[in-house]
Each structure stands twice: as C-alpha cells, then as structure tokens.
Design goal:
By secondary structure, this protein is mainly α. It has a single domain, classed as Helix Hairpins (Orthogonal Bundle). Helices cover about 85% and strands about 0% of the residues. It contains three helices and no strands. Helix 2 packs antiparallel against helix 3. The longest helix has about 35 residues. The termini are far apart. The mean pLDDT is about 90.
Length: about 70
C-alpha cells in the first residue's frame, strides 16, 4: 500500500483500514502457529502497512494541533 493512497483517505477510512490490517495479521499469525502459513512475507507487509497508516494518522493529528496553536497566536 502506498502512502499517497493513504493520504487520500479520510480519518474514518484509515481507522477502518487499521482494524482490517490487525484482523488479517491475527489470522495469519494463527495460520503460522498451525503451520499452514503459505506466505510469511505477508506478515511483514501487514506490519509495515499498519505502521504507515498510523504514521499518516499521527501526521494529521500533529498538523491539526499545529494549526490550532498558530491560530491562537493570530
């Protein structure tokens, strides 16, 4: 998943995406435990995708708080 695609999504969509990624990662870890995992690389991809989504959410939070601070100064 590309960061550009994530930045185009709304905050609600991003939160939903995090939930989907966590659920898929849980299922893959379960498969790994049972020895049925076909693509171990997918676990790494999911972990990184989750981090990307969290980063975009934090960027938005930081920019929102920065704009509030700058607005208070004016």
């Amino acid at each position: 998943m590309k960061v550009v695609e994530l930045r185009e999504m709304s905050a609600e969509d991003l939160h939903r995406k995090v939930g989907e990624l966590h659920e898929e990662r849980f299922n893959l870890r379960f498969q790994q435990t049972l020895g049925q995992l076909t693509s171990p690389i997918r676990l790494r991809q999911l972990r990184r995708d989750t981090a990307r989504v969290h980063t975009v959410l934090r960027e938005r939070g930081a920019s929102a708080s920065t704009s509030k601070i700058e607005g208070d100064k004016a």
